[in-house]
Amino acid sequence: MWKSLYGPQPCKLCPFCSTTVEPGATSAKMCVADIGCEGKGFGWGIGFTKCKTGSFKISKGNGDCEPCKGGATDCGGVYGNLDVGQHKGLP
Predict the structure, then answer these.
(1) Residue 6 CB contacts under 8 Å (≥ 6 apart), including other chains
(2) Region of 22 on the Ramachandran plot (φ > 0 left; ψ -120 to 50 alpha; else beta)
């Protein structure tokens, strides 16, 4: 969410598949790709999309989704895989 003006006006939602990393965002250009989404951001004049089948992303921030482990076509879940630790070497 972001807000360009100080005062009682409500915050605005970031566009589809994006969020802010920290509180205090003052424009939609500060929105970044959400978990499970990819893109370079609005500073590049483009938006964000959900990870394609066979890919995942476990963090907020601009960039690409990663392929599922072993070339799987369905990682499932918000991140792209419910057992995402297997993909990133996490416990």
Answers:
(1) none
(2) beta
Q: How far apart are CA 1 and CA 45, in angstroms?
A: 19
Q: Which phi and psi (to 5°) does residue 25 adopt? A: -65, 140
How far is CA 87 from each of CA 56, 68, 83, rounded to the nearest angstrom? 9, 7, 8
| Structural domain spans, the chain | 18-88
Please name the amino acid found at residue 60: K
> How buried is residue 40: exposed, middle or buried, by Cβ count under 10 Å (0-12/13-18/19+)?
middle
Tell me the pTM: 0.70
Residue 58's nearest CA partner among 27, 41, 80 is 80
pLDDT tens digit sequence for 15-69? 888 999 888 889 888 889 999 899 887 655 568 888 888 888 888 998 899 888 7
SS3 50: strand
Number of Cβ atoms within 10 Å of the Cβ of 47? 17
